[in-house]
Amino acid sequence: MFDTSILLTGALVFVARIVDVSIGTIRTIVTVQGRTVIAFWLAIVEITIWVAVASTVINQLKDQPLLVVFYAFGYATGNVVGILVERKLAFGLMVLRVITQKAGNTIAQALRDKGQPVTQLIGEGMHGQVAVLYIASRRRDLKWILPIVKDKDPKAFYVLEAARDVSHILKPTATAIGGWRALSKRK
Fold first, then answer.
1. How far is the C-alpha of 77 from the C-alpha of 65, rounded, in Å?
2. What is the DSSP string of 52-112?
3. Is 170 helix (H, G, I), strand (E, B) or coil?
4. Is the same domain home to 85 and 130?
5. Which residue in 89, 117, 157, 187 could disulfide with 170, CB within 3.0 to 4.6 Å?
6. How is the beta sheet containing 119-125 ordered, strand by strand?
């Protein structure tokens, strides 16, 4: 029913679209974060793949209209993959503000014990005095910071905001090495 060459070309179009759209998603995010050099190189790779794939599909469209389906599914899948990859990479800096009625000192000390800088302020909430914790961190560090906050005060209110420009970020001194670097540390 289907020619093998059409299916092979379709599979290549599908995979190439996943790659170029995923790169485009990550490029957009790093552009918004102001990382121009990374965005520049990602754009070159992205557009090179796109031109090759689009020209292949357009040149063969009359003879192999099924390639449009592979192209469309590759595009849609690339969006999802790009978002998942970016979440895994967790680029960027965040500002976490925690408001708690009872556990301000406990949360702040638990985070400081792990090397995370915390600024603590006293504020006035709807029901009286509250502690306001101000934490600037790498986005990837939130995966261990938020559980500490929730463990120490399940009723704590917190707000996360992306930080575009930060004078400097103090990295936690006691966090475990993760990702590919952890492979060389295993015994």
1. 19
2. HHHHHHHHHTTT-THHHHHHHHHHHHHHHHHHHHHHHHT-SEEEEEEEESS-HHHHHHHHH
3. coil
4. no
5. 117
6. 119-125, 128-138, 93-100, 157-163
172 C-beta neighbours (distance < 10 Å), count? 17
Query: Of 66, 89, 112, at which residue does a domain stop?
Result: 89
CA-based max dimension of the chain: 73
- pTM, 2 dp: 0.63
Same-domain status, 101 and 80: no
Q: Phi and psi dihedrals of 169, rounded to 5?
A: -115, 130
Amino acid identity of residue 103, one-letter, is A
Residue-wise pLDDT tens digits, 76-122 = 999 999 888 887 877 778 899 999 999 999 999 999 999 999 999 99
Measured distance CA(49)–CA(20) in Å, rounded: 6
